[in-house]
Amino acid sequence: MATTMTKTGNKPNWFMQTLGSTLGRKLLMALTGLFLILFLTIHLIGNLQLLMSDNGKTFNEYAEFMAHNKFIQVVSIGNFFFILLHIFVSILLTFYNQNARPIQYAYKSKTKIAPAARQMMVLGTLVLIFIVVHLVNFWGKAKFGEMPKTPEGLHDLYAVTKAAFESPALVGLYVFCMIALAFHLSHGFQSAFQTIGLNHQKYTPFIKFLGTVYAIGVPFLYALIPVLMYVWSLK
């Protein structure tokens, strides 16, 4: 009985086992990446309401709903967790990959690797900078700062966003980071599906096409919002 208890007590945690294997780390990267891709899509749909010609009414109603819906709040906490997990696992993968073969073989230099694949950490860092700037300028102010109110008594997040995007420097940073996100997604989208086993000659070409459309379209629309709001502020 003592032996059984010892084995049970020494049984490795499943999460640590996953982090300890290359396949496990890649799987965690893929699953967290796919969750964040889904989040990016839903978040974009909400943010596009900033472009509606109703002086922010629809966007502020959307923001109010998101801020007080219990389910959305749970998902929001999960999103922060998955972002941090995605970053942590990516650092682990980079560390293990760099130390797996200390001796660089001659044939390695001839291997064709997509630029986005080689620079995923750099691109990911730029995306992280964008997330921090975005949280400080909008989420932080909405949660902890003084917010103007609409005539209906709602937090006027539209006014805060409009004022922020009157800065060409901030708009330029958003556009630059969205270009980095596009390159990051161009590799990450297809890689995630490949890691979970969706890699077959019948549907891989479609996944590549969908990934390219997504990697271009979503960052473009995100970048379009601050650009248009800046242009409108000049009128």
Describe this structure in words.
This protein is mostly helical. The protein has a single domain, classed as Fumarate reductase/succinate dehydrogenase, transmembrane subunit (3 helical TM bundles of succinate and fumarate reductases, Up-down Bundle), CATH 1.20.1300. Helix content is about 75%, strand content about 0%. It is built from ten helices and no strands. It has helices at about 1-10, 15-20, 20-45, 55-70, 70-100, 115-120, 120-145, 155-165, 170-195, 205-235. The chain starts with a helix and ends with a helix.
Quick gist of this model?
Helix 3 (22-47) packs across helix 10 (204-233). 20% of the residues are buried.
Fold blueprint:
Elements: H1 2-9, H2 14-20, H3 22-47, H4 57-68, H5 70-100, H6 115-118, H7 120-144, H8 157-164, H9 168-195, H10 204-233
Oligomeric form? single chain
Q: Estimate the helix proportion, in percent.
A: over 70%
How many discrete structural domains?
A: 1
Q: What percent strand?
A: under 5%
Kindly report the CATH topology: 3 helical TM bundles of succinate and fumarate reductases
Low-confidence stretches: 1-9, 103-114
**Gap between N and C termini, in Å?**
80 Å
Mean pLDDT: 80
Q: What about the largest sheet?
A: none
CATH class: Mainly Alpha
Structural class category: mainly alpha
Question: Any idea what the radius of gyration is?
Answer: 22 Å
CATH homologous superfamily (4th level) name? Fumarate reductase/succinate dehydrogenase, transmembrane subunit
- CATH-derived architecture: Up-down Bundle
The dominant shape is: globular
**How many extended strands?**
0
H/E element sequence: HHHHHHHHHH
* Total of helices: 10
